[in-house]
Amino acid sequence: MSQKQESSDTKEQSDEDHGKFEEQKLRLEEKSSGTSGDEGSSPDSSSIFRSLISKFGNLSANDKPNLNRQKLSSLTIEGVVEYILDQNIKNIIVLTGAGISTSAGVPDFRSPGTGLYDNVAQYNLSNPMLIFDISYFMKNPEPFYKLAKNLFPTNLKPTPCHYLIRLMDEKGLLLRWYTQNIDSLEFMTGIHQEKLVAAHGCHHSSTCLSCYAKYDQNWIMNKLFQENVNVAYCEKCGGIVKPDIVFFGENLPVRFFSCSKKDFPKCDLLIIMGTSLVVQPFAGLLDAVKEEVPRLLINLTEVGRSIYSSYPHSRSGLCYGDEDNYRDVFWRGTTDDGAWKLAELLGWKQELEQLIKKEWDKIELKNQEKAKKVSCTTERVSTLDNGIHDPKSSECVKAAKEKNL
């Protein structure tokens, strides 16, 4: 038999195996959370996601990998960088979680002692995740708003990891950035918003749960940090206002499913950074790439191993450390350290340093202007209450007097 014929037979057998397992995988797939913070989200979006996983995920735990599919010269971060440079990689998908924001001052959810879930004991909840449960929030929103002060701290700057991903986009390597984070730091990097998929929403905007009135980020942030405000209520109808983040019991944005359906068949490298990979359906994205696509995990701990290992005919999850691994790489460390390592190996270190300095300077200037504006507003209120005793005391007071405020 010729090598060409043998290859053809192998492909036909693979297609036959795919047909056998596809229906079974669809039955066995865990039911995904639904999809969308938007009204009228697609009712079958979870089936779309299950179909995506079934189409591009591995077929059987007993299948032996075809080592000819190994595209990395070595299963190391150096091998990944060599693959990027030598193979003209242009469709990188990045998956990120709370770990990429901790160095910016945003606590993650699950770290013992410091994670948000470990700091909600004061609310006497049977399960700390209830704070992010939509049914509980509608009955008692106050615990969420108290916790949100830690969840959305002010004067934050994106991390080196954030900016590395923006640099990937500037280099034309990034297909899409999928994030679980709700801190909105991704938007502050200056990356094109079309490149972002905020799988769990963000607090860029908020919505009244009664009349659906919309409020911007400045409005909700002002409410969060007003001492006498325990819950944000709608200025139009008095209903509870909720940041547009996805709570347990709510649907994920339709954009998450529509983008993943078209993106993952194109992906030529998957990079996963700073996530525990336990929340579905986001965690299942690692199995949505084609079988030969390399996957790099940068994290402090090992995660993502054999997510569906309880199913006898389903092989999925990351395979780093396994004898038959041919594509997965685990680099242990912080996401910032991993970002600097990648930048160094790619020859981008100086560019990353310059980008961070430029963007941090812009954010610092913006924060200073915002602080000055707040100071002026406070002083104007004071002059209204008490009269202007010293018109020369500040520029704000002068401006207030000129405008007869």
TrEMBL record:
InterPro entries: DHS-like_NAD/FAD-binding_dom, NAD-dep_sirtuin_deacylases, Sirtuin, Sirtuin_cat_small_dom_sf, Ssirtuin_cat_dom. It catalyses: N(6)-tetradecanoyl-L-lysyl-[protein] + NAD(+) + H2O = 2''-O-tetradecanoyl-ADP-D-ribose + nicotinamide + L-lysyl-[protein]; N(6)-hexadecanoyl-L-lysyl-[protein] + NAD(+) + H2O = 2''-O-hexadecanoyl-ADP-D-ribose + nicotinamide + L-lysyl-[protein]. GO terms for molecular function: histone deacetylase activity, NAD-dependent; metal ion binding; NAD+ binding. The keyword Membrane does not apply. Pfam families: SIR2. Gene3D superfamilies: SIR2/SIRT2 'Small Domain, TPP-binding domain. The active site is at 200 (proton acceptor). Residues 70-349 form the Deacetylase sirtuin-type domain. Residues 33-45 have a biased composition (Low complexity). Residues 1-45, 384-405 are annotated as: Disordered. Zn(2+) binds at residues 208, 211, 234, 237. This is NAD-dependent protein deacetylase. It comes from Thelazia callipaeda (Oriental eyeworm).
